[in-house]
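Run log, item B.
One chain of 251 residues. Sequence copied directly from the ordering sheet:
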Amino acid sequence: MPPWCSFFEPKLWLARASRRGQRLLLQGMEEEALRDALLSLLDETPVVGHPGLLDMAAKLVDGVDRPTLARLNHPVTIHVQRHLGPLLDVLLDPSGVALLVVQPSLRCPAVRLVTLGMSDRPQSGSGEPIWGELMLAVPSDQWRVWVPLLLKLAHYPFLHNTFLWSGHTLENHGLAPASDYAGFLVFPSISVDESFHFLHEPDKRTVFLSVYPLYSEELDFYRSSSLEALLERLEMAQISDLVLPQRSKAV
């Protein structure tokens, strides 16, 4: 068993749709618009409030099952596509957490991995409920290597009855055994517009935090000084949340 299976056994499968169906699904449609678009494929009259929407749509679109379709129409998915761009892949895990894989672009040549499902339940330990999702920006030819790390980080607060918030750090104790990084900083992404950082819904506010891999010197510097001092060093070294292989050290 791979070392990253220590928390759970991720059995990922790629949710693929037909080319025509995928174009419809990945436009961030609201449920009614999605239903109408799918029903139009059969030239039928849409029925408002159709109770079997997801089951019906899954039959219309080749290769998309009901859980996948629900994730594609999730508010987090719509928010991610609106701010970051179209999806390349959607990975589902039996635990209920999915990973949204955002296509690289001219503005961001990296692939962004965003969790989907962390915010379905609040994180505890802060005195008040926290709903959050995590993001990791990695080279487009290496993104699959980072999938296990992000999945384990997504489960971390629930396994340890804690919460992840801006400025928190985690040591790399088997989280990413194949990397040279000693730990990870959780902080809002500085490579996206600030409007992406929060998703406001009627019953909750979801925060999107990015994962910054840190070398041992950077992690030690953070502990001996402050978050502000580390961020200043990262900025001086022109290091963002975009993970670069063999990048220079900030300290």
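Observations after the first pass:
- The chain has two domains: 13-73, 75-251.
- The radius of gyration is 19 Å.
Flagged for discussion on Thursday.
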